[in-house]
Amino acid sequence: MCENGFTDPRLLSGVYINSCTFKTQSYPKPDRTVTHDEGIDMTSEIEPSACSCDDGNCACGTGGCACGSGKCTETIGDSSDQGPEMPDLGQGWTTGDLDEEWEAHAEEKLETVDFDVELGVEMSRDAMRLARGELTEAEFHDKHHEAIKAEFGIDERPTKSTPLEATRGGDGNALPGVPAVEGSGLSSRRGLMKAIGGLAATGATASVAGCLDQDAGGSASATDGDGGDNEVQMGMVIDTDQCIACLKCSEACKEENNTDRGAQWMHVFRYEEDEYGETRAGQMPRPCQHCSEPSCTYVCPTQSRFKREEDGIVVTDYDRCIGCKYCEVACPYGVNFLGKNEPTEKSPGFFGSETDQNDRHVGGPPPAGVMGKCTFCVHRQDDSAQRGTTACEDDCPVDAIHFGDMNDSESDPREYLRENDEETRFKLLEQQGNEPNIVYLGNEPSNEAKPVDGPYTYEDVGLETLAEDGGDD
Amino acid sequence: MSTGVLEDRVLYPLENTSRRFYALLAVFVLTTILFLVAWVYQLNVGVWAATGIGDWGISGGVPWGLYIGGFVWWIGLAHGGIAISAAVRVINVDRFAPIARVSEVLTVLALSMAATNIVLSMGRPDRIFNTIIWWPATVHHSPLAWDIAVISLYLVLSLTYLTLSLRAEIAAFRDRLPVHFSPLYVLLTLGYSTSEDEKIEQILWWLAVAILALVPLLSGGVVPWLFSLIAAQPGWFGAAAGAAMLTESLTSALAGVIVITAIFRWAYDWDDVIDERIFRDLAIVLAFLALATIWFTMHDILTGVYAAPTNIGALTTAMLELSFFWLAVIGLVVSVVALFVMIGWPEQFFSIPALVGVSVILSITILNKKVMFVVEGLMFPTAPPLTNLYPTGSYSPTLVEWWLFIGTIFLAGFGFLVASKVIPMVELDPEEVN
Ligand code: SF4
Ligand code: SF4
Predict the structure, then answer these.
(1) A302 is in which domain, residue-wise?
(2) ipTM confidence score
(3) Domain residues for B214?
(4) CATH code at A460?
(5) Residues of B with CB below 8 A from A337's CB?
(6) Strand A425-426, strand A267-275: pairing
(7) What pTM value is reported for the model?
(8) According to its UniProt record, what is one Pfam family this protein matches (chain B) (predicted)?
């Protein structure tokens, strides 16, 4: 049984375990009807044995469940993509709203990830005890600290008091990063820009070097297509079939980077489309694509927007940007948000390093009037303890996001691609020529895809609420 | 009219100040103060809060609005203005000489107002000089850096042009010009001797040729490139934007010159200085320019609705539903019809007030078209499947935005008012004096 008091029932302890259930919010699902009202027959085609009722009084007929009182849930046995109805994160959920169906779905997804499910379940139980007051917070953390450390390599809880230590090296300074790459190749677009530059500018040495943070005078080096010209090119593989549109990544990003109200550096599209007469629902998380041919950097009149040489991350120099919004206009992905100085309640502030290893102010939320967007948690990349991680990846309960060097065949994303080589894959808006570094697994949304409300909205998870001190000016 | 009388008439505003002038001055000072108040407000709350602009993408905003549309409009006026003046010199049509000076001044003022609009649109206007500091590094790749280059180049060219053409005149009429601007006149005529006149004429002619040659590249190139190179916004992308924009620019510039010249003619009773025939000839040019603008609009629509790629088709269809679009079409059609009636039957229908009326309609129509071009491109951003997943953008300028933009028009008016007290607004021939 659950008690009120958990603000986020979706996630207790970093893995997706849901012992409590909540009011369901229906979002259209094509091939199954699930009702959760008391005493009403479940009409879905399920295994009778998969029925369970929270009052233990379960009657199963062929193809359906019926409960005496309380809630009835079905458990889906097969590994079909269609998960059960996702629980709503209304803040008013109660213990009566158990949804074992959802738990089963989540557990099933969890089977496919490397995390320790038992640990999660155990933590969830304790978390409920915590909520009931049977356990103090300190006891809770004590009990699980070691296990979490072992499982995730890091235990941030109780998060908010220690993040500074977590993101800094021992001496308090951000540690030096990956060594800089010498030289670069000029690909077609850059070559053209260089040619124009040569025409327009005074010197023949003209190049777009600056906007790529690279020495374009260097000799061209062949690199593989995926990662563009940077020897190290951070990127992501995002498995849209694995994604459950829980918005944990958006939320984690907001907490980590303290972004403004309304700014979702990591946005999760939830959509429906018609597939030969059938309605198909889908979801697609969308960070900045950290393009290899980033149109945003080309257009910037101050070279504030640039691509880091050391890891191919595209960031904005917050101290130099004039807020002309040209990068926003030139980006085909719609990932830019002008800084407004409207922090939300979600985040206590930004605790990472604001300056990168080259001392440019690129980390965290943009100051007012300056352009911001997903930084691939650049403050983590310059910190040896957290290098190679992002907040969204860390918090994804179903391990749908894989972050790493796209040019390194041993990296997590590349490995994941190999493991799932049967799956269809796509890059978003590839025809635009930006050479994005996010690879998606699953079906690409069609040109007819229509946005629909997901199981959670940003309001649900409190992403839109202004912080007390957030200036609304 | 004898030369002496012409001089008297042209120099009259420099020697005398009427009550009407003071009234107008008061109005402009007031509007300037209001402009500054609105700007300070915008600086305080931030451009994102004071204006209707927002972020495209999930927020469904439009990052560029009235200011950028206004910027393009001002640039059009500026380039067209200097082109008219240069054309007068290169083709050597003395008859049009009286409008040359007004066109030159318009260019200088319009360029300044274009720059002002850019500054208004920026999130961090205090950092404007970063564009200059980093210009050597960004000019290779950023269309905005090209624009800064073009605007600066044009400002230099038009100021040089204006200054050179003024030297002989100022030197000749020095004693009749207001004393309190003496330092300026000394500066302008530094090292002047009558022997340079011929040389200066030659230099001016070549400058004019250079300006004319640059107009298509700059007004029909660099400014439209700001948009047409951006593949992310299908509403902008394309090669024909340059030609269309050049035509629109020339149309609005000519309309602007007509309006301002007519105002000066009316204010100083210059009926004898600026002949009505000039206006008739300008009306003919304007009629054909406006017709060309309609032609480009038709071209746009037809390619957009006839078997166009789905998102371009959707974009055009959506545009056809915008009332602003139909306002623009009506404005163009009405102007063209009126202009052709005027030039066809001048005896019955031509009058300067009517021409000014049509010119005002055309200027507003083209402003509308430019703002629509900017905003519309951003309302239906990107390509599918993202274009269908993101909400359609929406934008409506706030009062502050309207006021600041209209304020730039008043500022330009203020500029004209001041200029009319400093330099002769109609070119005089100094040789007649000497
Ligand atoms: S997605 Fe947009 S903002 Fe991000 S790197 Fe590419 S062009 Fe730039
Ligand atoms: S808004 Fe800033 S980062 Fe973007 S193009 Fe302008 S100056 Fe560059």
Answers:
(1) 191-473
(2) 0.89
(3) 3-433
(4) 3.30.70.20
(5) 55, 57, 59
(6) unpaired
(7) 0.76
(8) NrfD
